[in-house]
Amino acid sequence: MSETVAFKPESLEQVHKIIARYPEGKQKSALIPVLHIAQKEFGGWLDVPVMDYVAQILNIKPIEVYEVATFYTMFNMKPVGKYVLEVCQTGPCMLNGSDGILSHIRETLNIKNGETTADGLFTLKPAECLGACGYAPMMQLGKFYHEHLTKEKVDEILELCRQGAIALD
Amino acid sequence: MSKKLLLKDAHVEGIRFYDVYRKQGGYEAVEKALKMSTDEIIEEVKTSGLRGRGGAGFPTGMKWSFLAKPEGVPRYLVVNADESEPGTFKDRYLMEFIPHLLIEGMIISSYALGANTSYIYIRGEYSWIPDILEEAIEEAKKAGFLGKNILGTGYDLEIYVHRGAGAYICGEETALLESLEGKRGNPRLKPPFPAVKGLWESPTVVNNVETIAAVVPIINITGAEYAKIGVGRSTGTKLISACGNINKPGVYEIDMTITVEEFIYSDEYCGGIPNGKKLKACIPGGSSVPIVPANLLLKTINGEPRYMNYESLADGGFATGTMMGSGGFIVLDEDQCVVKHTMSLAHFYAHESCGQCTPCREGTPWMYKILKKIESGEGTLADIDLLWDIQRKIEGNTICPLGDAAAWPVAAAIRHFRDEFEWHIDNPEALTKNYGLANYADPIPVAAKAE
Ligand SMILES: Cc1cc2nc3c(=O)[nH]c(=O)nc-3n(C[C@H](O)[C@H](O)[C@H](O)COP(=O)(O)O)c2cc1C
Ligand code: SF4
Ligand code: FES
User: Fold this and answer.
1) Which residues of A touch B119 (CB under 8 A)?
2) How far is CA B340 from CA A157, B343, B404, in A?
């Protein structure tokens, strides 16, 4: 990515709205919400020029952005596939078969945890408890949760992704 | 039938929207509260006996009365909607289905605390919920319950939703404040407490979603009436999110007078264990509280029935009891492996440690590694003692309670299920078979519970 990183006007407007939620001089508080917008707009991960751009908008040092971006699991520090399958693997989901869901995805897509398929379509990102323990097993895909997963349901979801027919946001 | 305060209208069609919520009596508590003095509201909350629903159970009225009130300094209410404790998904339910209840509670609480700006810090993964909350905020504003000069009283309030980005530690209140300031979620050393120096160094109250929602019925029915519900110091109602091996996982509102047995086996709640299996163990208050075997879950060590409330669940201390915690009720049936489940939780805590304190940063991944070793059949008996030793050295030696939260599940698993750990070590069968119920459980067969 070159120095041409810049938000779309709508996004920039949204960023300024977010900054206005915090008192004068506390614009740094907008950092996490703004990084969410940036990640969505610039390819699903946070490249260094993107983080530098965010630093510039918020008038903070680039290091202040890096240290935050690397702390939170929702921010991707390297490229990811178009569809990031975030499958919960924590205890309560495990009690309801998340192991089987994870291995089914690994086998179907022929990737390991954390990897992206060669076609750049899918990344498998095991997640820790996402607050859906009663509707386990589950995964997050974009903005939404897919719950009560079965292998069949996972296959359907993967197919919908391949057809570009699934809501991410 | 348990008394319902928070979820009484949960099944009313369209309750998510202002008009319907209002028709069900919504915002009447705001109308009532804004005619009261701030001290009167705080007094009602004190009288109600409401205890924080985020996990620690600290009396809310008392917490509010600690808030410093220096001249010319803003005060803040921050709602903790980080909800990341494994087994817990009750706040999500409230926000997703009855968002106005939280907004109404926030208006009353912010008014009582003298806050003119309040934030909802919501875990980033709940990424569709901010839209729901923001819509509710807009509706409330249009109706005159938010914004400038609310109901002509001269009181101003803005509520903003702030998304996190995936970090369990941001549920700890000082880490949450750091995160809200745009930093890493590193817990702060206390004192100073947030009540004195919180958000941007201003006096701040951090309360759980359910705690703030409970303020609405307290104002509606009075603190004294609220205190009559429940038992002892477990007043009012509590949301329990039930999961694991049960027939009816979900979010239930209970009045804290029911027994654990009724909660698990009755059709009104969990509906028993699926497939005729037996109950093996339970973590009744979110992953951080001690796991207990079936026999100690259903009855206390004195043979009394155990109840779903703060005192009864804690009866016997950590030796034979557990905790109410956040109300994340995780049930394990006879086919579950305690070693594997504990390993999964150890992985969670290792993943979520912020890394500031050595015992937590180093100890949590170490515990995970040892548990993995035991689980995969490579462990030795000395590993169990080592595990015990590590958890003991983490507990109480860290900046924030995440260290304890990581230590307790391991300690409790060894305390009550040591034989299962040993079986994993001595027995190559452990790789393909399950230890089952063995000799510590006193399960109640599902059939016997039918009448
Ligand atoms: C590691 C850790 C995680 C926590 N997570 C949450 C959480 O997700 N939600 C919550 O309300 N409280 C959480 N707490 C408790 C908060 O620090 C704080 O006590 C609570 O928000 C106070 O609100 P209450 O008095 O209304 O319960 C957590 C505490 C610790 C130590
Ligand atoms: S106990 Fe763990 S999570 Fe808490 S401050 Fe220390 S290292 Fe961070
Ligand atoms: S354990 Fe998977 S959502 Fe909670």
Assistant:
1) 21
2) 29, 5, 20
Q: How many CB atoms sit inside 10 A of residue B298's CB? A: 21
CB < 8 Å from A in window 66-85 of B? 74, 83-85
Is residue B85 within 8 Å of residue A129, measured between CB atoms? yes
- Going residue by residue through chain B, which has 451 residues, state the pLDDT in tens, using 9 for 90 and above: 568 999 999 999 999 999 999 999 999 999 999 999 999 999 999 999 999 999 999 999 999 999 999 999 999 999 999 999 999 999 999 999 999 999 999 999 999 999 999 999 999 999 999 999 999 999 999 999 999 999 999 999 999 999 999 999 999 999 999 999 999 999 999 999 999 999 999 999 999 999 999 999 999 999 999 999 999 999 999 999 999 999 999 999 999 999 999 999 999 999 999 998 999 999 999 999 999 999 999 999 999 999 999 999 999 999 999 999 999 999 999 999 999 999 999 999 999 999 999 999 999 999 999 999 999 999 999 999 999 999 999 999 999 999 999 999 999 999 999 999 999 997 888 888 888 775 444 444 433 433 3
For residue B364, the ligand closest to its alpha carbon is 2
Q: With a CB-CB cutoff of 8 Å, which residues 262-291 of chain B face chain A?
A: 287
Q: Strand B234-235 vs strand B230-231: parallel, antiparallel, or unpaired?
A: antiparallel
**Contact flag B168-A71 (C-beta cutoff 8 Å):** no
Rounded Cα distance between B99 and B91, Å, is 10
Which residues contact ligand 1 via a Cβ below 6 A? Answer: B 52-56, 58, 80, 82-85, 169, 171-173, 206-208, 211, 400-402, 405
Q: Between chains, do A95 and B332 touch, taking CB under 8 Å as contact? A: yes
Q: What is the rounded distance in angstroms from the CA atom of residue A144 to the CA atom of residue A140?
A: 6
pTM across the whole model = 0.96
Residues 6+ apart with CB under 8 A from B378: none
What is the CA angle B291-B348-B429, rounded to 5?
65
Contact yes or no for A129/A88 (Cβ under 8 A): yes
CB-based contact B181 A28, cutoff 8 Å: yes
Question: Using a 6 Å cutoff on CB, does residue A132 contact ligand 3?
Answer: yes
Q: What is the DSSP letter of A116?
A: B
| Mutational test site, ligand 1, from B46, B169, B170, B173, max ligand atoms within 8 Å of CB | B173
Closest chain A C-alpha to B355 CA, distance in angstroms: 10
Residues in chain A: 169
ipTM, two decimals, is: 0.97
- Yes or no, beta carbons of A95 and B165 under 8 Å apart: no
